[in-house]
């Protein structure tokens, strides 16, 4: 409306009406008060609420519609907001680290990176599966395609306001939405802020006697803001050792995309760096 009022058509008509009122006042056909009261004004009214509801698109719909092969769906997590049915579902690929809405995740699943990571995951240390061409990956994807599987058994869906990554000002607890502005303890907004640290689920190998192959473990890490700089050589060495263990565990995760050779190279490099740091600590921090 502001652009209309500032437009040539509106201003031209307003000028013509103003000249006509001035002429009537001069001829005594109306008083100045009447002329002022008859001056047209723009009445501002609130925009009517939209009657058309937005229907979010889920990744499952796009997979059912496509003729191209889809693989690696067991690595995909889906997060759906409970309090707002119009919010697009959010997706995360644990195998590659990709995340986004259904269109972006669908493109990721069709891409070279995801298919390559998938083949490396199922082939173990078979070096023949490294650096496959696009055509080779398409052939393998057709061989292992999951299009006709029960998608709800592969894609893990979480319906939760706390786990959903809300855009700024959209979460139900924000001031803009009538909330207090304080996110719940388990909300993503609090990741790394709680004193008890961040908690997340991680898959890892079971012990040899378990025999089932995989387990869901709850790993507890200190929040980034709560980690203090070491105050002694002993503390620094302990922190380095804990860091080495964490990195080794992360590389051993099935979704890391690292082969055995890659892990050996990284571990050797890490050992050399830690040895150098330990040597400097022994010298009192002098290089």
Describe the structure.
With 287 residues, the protein is of the alpha+beta class. It is 40% helix and 11% strand. It contains ten helices and six strands. It has a four-stranded mixed beta sheet with strand order 3-2-1-4. Helix 6 packs across helix 7 and helix 9 (233-252) packs antiparallel against helix 10. The longest helix is centred in the C-terminal third of the chain and has 23 residues, at 260-282. It is elongated. 14% of the residues are buried.
Q: What class would the helix/strand composition place it in?
A: alpha+beta
Percent of residues in beta strands?
Answer: 5-15%
Distance between the termini: 68 Å
Broad shape: elongated
Average pLDDT over all residues = 79
Largest sheet: 4 strands, mixed
Order of helices and strands: HHHHEEEHHHHEEEHH
What spatial order of strands do you see in the largest sheet?
A: 3-2-1-4
Number of strands: 6
Provide the helix percentage.
25-40%
Rounded Rg: 31 Å
Uncertain segments: 191-219
Number of helices: 10
Quick overview of this protein structure:
The chain has helices at residues 2-5, 8-26, 32-37, 59-65, 102-110, 112-123, 134-143, 151-154, 233-252, 260-282; strands at 76-80, 90-93, 99-100, 156-159, 198-205, 214-221.
């Amino acid at each position: 409306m502001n652009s209309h009022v500032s437009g040539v058509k509106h201003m031209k008509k307003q000028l013509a009406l103003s000249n006509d009122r001035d002429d009537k006042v001069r001829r005594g056909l109306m008083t100045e008060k009447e002329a002022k009261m008859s001056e047209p004004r723009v009445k501002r009214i609130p925009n009517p609420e939209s009657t058309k509801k937005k229907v979010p698109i889920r990744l499952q719909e796009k997979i059912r519609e496509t003729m191209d092969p889809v693989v690696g769906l067991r690595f995909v997590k889906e997060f759906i907001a409970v309090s707002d049915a119009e919010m697009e579902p959010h997706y995360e690929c644990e195998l590659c680290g990709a995340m986004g809405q259904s269109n972006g995740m669908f493109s990721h699943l069709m891409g070279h990176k995801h298919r390559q990571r998938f083949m490396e995951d199922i082939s173990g240390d078979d070096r023949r599966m490294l650096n496959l061409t696009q055509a080779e990956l398409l052939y393998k994807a057709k061989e292992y395609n999951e299009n006709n599987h029960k998608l709800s058994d592969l894609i893990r869906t979480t319906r939760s306001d706390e786990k959903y990554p809300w855009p700024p000002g959209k979460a139900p607890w924000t001031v803009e939405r009538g909330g207090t502005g304080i996110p719940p303890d388990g909300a993503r907004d609090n990741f790394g802020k709680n004193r008890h640290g961040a908690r997340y689920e991680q898959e890892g190998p079971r012990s040899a006697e378990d025999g089932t192959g995989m387990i869901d473990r709850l790993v507890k890490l200190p929040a980034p803001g709560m980690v203090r700089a070491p105050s002694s050589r002993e503390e620094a060495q302990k922190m380095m050792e804990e860091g080495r263990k964490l990195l080794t565990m992360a590389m051993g995760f099935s979704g890391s995309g690292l082969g055995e050779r890659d892990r050996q190279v990284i571990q050797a490099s890490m050992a050399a760096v830690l040895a150098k740091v330990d040597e400097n600590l022994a010298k009192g921090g002098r290089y």
